[in-house]
Amino acid sequence: MSEAVRVPSPATPLVVAAAAPEERKGKESEREKLPPIVSAGAGATAGLDRGAKGQISTFSSFISAVSPKKEAAENRSSPAHLVFPNIKNVRDQPPICLDVRQKQRTSMDASSSEMKAPVLPEPIHPIQPKTVKDFQEDVEKVKSSGDWKAVHDFYLTTFDSFPELNAAFKKDATASFNTIEDSGINAKFVNAVYDTLLNTPQDIQKTVLKGIINSLLREWKGPRTKDDLRAYFILLQNPQFNNTSTYVIYAHLLRQIATLVEADHHFLVHWFKKLSQKRFKQLVERLLQFISLRLFPAKPEEFPPVTKCSWWIPSAAKVLALLNTANNLVHPPLIPYTDFYNSTLDHIDLMEEYHTWQNFGNSHRFSFCQYPFVISVAAKKIIIQRDSEQQMINIARQSLVDKVSRRQRPDMNMLFLNMKVRRTHLVSDSLDELTRKRADLKKKLKVTFVGEAGLDMGGLTKEWFLLLIRQIFHPDYGMFTYHKDSHCHWFSSFKCDNYSEFRLVGIYAKLMGLAVYNSITLDIRFPPCCYKKLLSPPIIPSDQNIPVGICSVTVDDLCQIMPELAHGLSELLSHEGNVEEDFYSTFQVFQEEFGIIKSYNLKPGGDKISVTNQNRKEYVQLYTDFLLNKSIYKQFAAFYYGFHSVCASNALMLLRPEEVEILVCGSPDLDMHALQRSTQYDGYAKTDLTIKYFWDVVLGFPLDLQKKLLHFTTGSDRVPVGGMADLNFKISKNETSTNCLPVAHTCFNQLCLPPYKSKKDLKQKLIIGISNSEGFGLE
């Protein structure tokens, strides 16, 4: 066996140093078969171990708030000393939290025996107290008798210990711990018990909390059993943890879950994905609220000082990472990825978080950038913009220093990326300027059209983007193909060795990068797969021999570009007859290039290998990979390097492919009421009759007409990351005849509206105007 590379993991467990050596030997057969989950560096748990010696005792001290009688006894027992062994990372699963700096990953199977999870003792199974039917009958009896004794006794027994929890909620109390896909928990029973709990008297709710405290104390000090994971899984769903008065208990529960060994996290991840959407979302929202209230407590006196509970937020972030991983394993996801955003983080010092992550990575200090899925795309945009601004300032400062050192007079134009282009030679001039000034690409962009007076206050820059993109996508250039079925562009697969054409693809990618840096929303339509490829990898590799823009693709990715072909391949996969006889295909594909049909083998000797029922999955995968990766590799590599030549920032590692698309193209979600609130007026007041007519009409438009209006006035039917307010939308009074149609200045997001006398007239003219204007659209 080759020497394994030791990579610390945020899933590194807390291990009692005094534990018997024999407990760390051996392995559980069921855990050897677990699919691995990739974790980030140990810094993700850095906040969990900070000050461990002085802080774990708070777990005993908080009991006094709920059970004063136990305080003295618990405080007499000092916490065990804790050590952190290295736990290896493993491959093939979505990461629990992304560690983009981590280059090498090893398998759990490659771990030495002392590194693997200890063999856990068999649990002792109490007798199952009640069935779900018995419990529901007891609850019904309360409604008539008012006697809560039977229900109280159930809660008292069930939450007193982990074995009791398992006895109450396991489908089979004696079932062995042998599956990763099924927790063995009666979810219906758990939901019924928790739904009832919040409606019980306070003494019952306190009983449950006392039982949880006792259970967690036993688990903290004693060896775990095989059923402990089920108990953690059950307790995490307790709705009582919505209340801030329970946060101290909740924090210790999260800490124990966060510091479980990595193999245990595998089980939890797969159990989480089996939860209903409602319950799953409740878990996520509860954790996000916990983080928000710890950062900005409404009543600071409710919580311990931050210095004594610095591990609260790292513990919650780790458990959120498990939920995020579970969500990514489900197709479609249980909840949208945006539901993991914590908008509270928009109000903290994001650049401090970013710099902490940059300076310490995932090894020493906690940073929210270790868990980018909780940072909203708006917050990530701020990080990217400020990072780019700092890069621009550094480059401009260096240019200034060079001028001064050569005793040359500084020119303010050196602080900008100045583009001088002719409208009649827009593409060629832009290509030459961007190539000649590639060292200035991170400076603030300013555009001048030769022979035209005027200063670029933002309008000329946007016009340059819109005009240039429109021309680059023209079919005459042959770099991109428009697919009408999917309404998107894709890279032409024509084999071409013309260097200038590859440069053109790279220049377009630079435009995308410049648009991100200069806060310009582009009206382009690439499929989501394109942005996934742009982040493969998110940082240009130092070794130029490493391929770029290659990512795992599926038929679903192909469907977003070529839906008819994807449908045909799906039918091939589901065909119940004899594939070889019915389809008569081989591992060879054909493409038309400039009127000539060319053939390509998907694998060596593919033209002689028939597609059969046994190998059709391989055929579909190779075909999809050929279309989306191999056949366009050179074109996309130029595109990749062009984009990253401008957007060379570690901040890109924080982004999902969907978020890159939103930064470049904007969001498709329209909120016309928000646009109404942020609109500025020139020559009109918002109380004028024409303006009232306008908004009555627009708010009543169907979505397609609202998109046409936005495209007519701004050049794009999408919304910037910051929302409608970032459009700076303006309605100006046009003193022309009311027989005229509205006019738009897309460079300034301005609509010139004549003072129409009636709502009917305004609606008619507006629909004609927005429906019959090509604008700067691509198709």
From TrEMBL:
Gene3D superfamilies: Hect, E3 ligase catalytic domain (3.30.2410.10), Hect, E3 ligase catalytic domains (3.90.1750.10)
Ranges of biased composition (kind: Basic and acidic residues): 21-34
Active site residues of this protein: 747 (glycyl thioester intermediate)
Alphabetically ordered keywords of this record: Phosphoprotein, Transferase, Ubl conjugation pathway
Enzyme Commission code: 2.3.2.26
Reaction(s) catalysed (UniProt annotation): S-ubiquitinyl-[E2 ubiquitin-conjugating enzyme]-L-cysteine + [acceptor protein]-L-lysine = [E2 ubiquitin-conjugating enzyme]-L-cysteine + N(6)-ubiquitinyl-[acceptor protein]-L-lysine
Stretches for region Disordered: 1-46
Pathway the protein contributes to: Protein modification; protein ubiquitination
SUPFAM superfamilies: Hect, E3 ligase catalytic domain (SSF56204)
Top-rank EC class of the record's enzyme: transferase
Bias kind Low complexity: ranges: 7-20
GO MF entry, a single one: ubiquitin protein ligase activity
Domain of life: Eukaryota
Residue ranges occupied by any HECT domain in the UniProt entry: 437-779
One GO term (biological process): protein polyubiquitination
Function according to Swiss-Prot or TrEMBL: E3 ubiquitin-protein ligase which accepts ubiquitin from an E2 ubiquitin-conjugating enzyme in the form of a thioester and then directly transfers the ubiquitin to targeted substrates.
Protein name: Probable E3 ubiquitin-protein ligase HECTD2
The gene coding this protein: HECTD2
